[in-house]
Amino acid sequence: MRELSREELLTRIEELEQQLIDSEQMVEAIKMGEVDAFAINKDNQSQVYTLQSGDYAYRVLIEEFSEGAINVTEDGLIVYTNPYFCELMESSYNQMIGSSITDFIGEDSKLKFDKLFQGSLQKKTKGEINLTVNGKIIPVFVYLTSLRPHIATVGIIFTDLTEKKRNEEVILEYQDNLEKKNNELNQNNKELASFAYVASHDLQEPLRKIQLYSSRIMERELNDVSDTGKDYFNRIIGSAKRMQDLIQDLLAYSRTDTVKGVFEMVELSSVLEDVKLELMEEIELNDASINLISSCKVNVITFQFRQLLNNLISNALKFSRPGQSPQIKIESDIITDLDIDEVPKKRDKSYCRIVITDNGIGFAQEYSEKIFQLFQRLHGKSEYSGTGIGLAIVKKIVENHNGYISASSGVGQGAVFTIYIPEI
């Protein structure tokens, strides 16, 4: 280490003496209360922070603040503004300083701002007002507080509400559109109710008469009707029957959404027994067997779930292979690790999984979604009866239960329907 010369030592001593004098003066000022200060211990050393150093940090914070901040005299003259407020007002710092804050207040807000400003001389005030900038209106939230007794000014913070108001307008527009859509929906529901009444009464009445009188002619005038005439009458009766089935299925489909039901825990086996009683004739006619391999409790609207099973089993009986007895197998279990994109995962949520398998004619897998759509048929009416609504009703019932249904098959390989119903 190099030794210092005499001149360097004297200079260093003078610097230390001056630092000592400055420190003694600062300590004395702190003792007399002329300067606020606080000490922080760091690395076993005390570091003294005065109001001056703290004020500098505060000023840097205000300068970088992402909200408008100004100081105004009690007469309303601007004596300080941060850069953000200058940017908001599209003015420079020099243009802002010395201006009156009222020059920037919208005409519709002057009285309200004056009330807030006068109130801030006694206590903190806040509220929403409008600023005007080059003919534009800027909605803001203001927070005012008097800086007395330290300084005779009022500090004001401005929060730009433009984006918030814009979002509110969008929300109001959506709400207005939603209200219109709800009104349209209510009107559609009324029309649907009217259609259901017409379908269940007015449309079916002439159908019943067509069937009745056609049957009477076939019974009483059989000998007087030619073979061609008999064929025509049989076609009339068959068409009337198909239309009646279509009307009844449409009614069932429309009521699936509108009819409210009570959820209750029931054994799958008990619902299945009811369905087997309803379909007893078809089951015996087709020499079908229905085997329940395993049963679990399900939380369902019982009459809807009964219809669901009825439709699926009826389908299995209808689309059986010629010359082969229908074999229908039903399995169920409770699962908690459901991994299906269409079903939102919920923590600690369990599902009853019901799998219905048959040995019928099946269908190409590419149609696994199409079969659940309204009026979709994969086979001609001459081959298999039906309206193309049964599986659409099944899907709607599953959706009413917040569940999910899928179908898998192959031509000539039977079909598998898998249903997931929330356990609770």
Automatic annotation (TrEMBL):
Q: What is the lineage of its organism?
A: Bacteria, Pseudomonadati, Bacteroidota, Flavobacteriia, Flavobacteriales
Which organism does this sequence originate in? Arenibacter certesii
What's the protein name?
Answer: histidine kinase
User: What does the record give as EC number?
Assistant: 2.7.13.3
Mention one GO molecular function. Answer: phosphorelay response regulator activity
Q: Where is the signal peptide?
A: none
Q: GO biological process annotations for this chain's record?
A: osmosensory signaling via phosphorelay pathway
| Pfam families from the UniProt entry | HATPase_c (PF02518), HisKA (PF00512), PAS_9 (PF13426)
Tell me where in this chain the PAS domain is found: 54-124
> Which InterPro entries has this protein been placed in?
BphY/WalK/GraS-like (IPR050351), HATPase_C_sf (IPR036890), HATPase_dom (IPR003594), His_kinase_dom (IPR005467), HisK_dim/P_dom (IPR003661), HisK_dim/P_sf (IPR036097), PAS (IPR000014), PAS-like_dom_sf (IPR035965)
Where's the Histidine kinase domain? 198-424
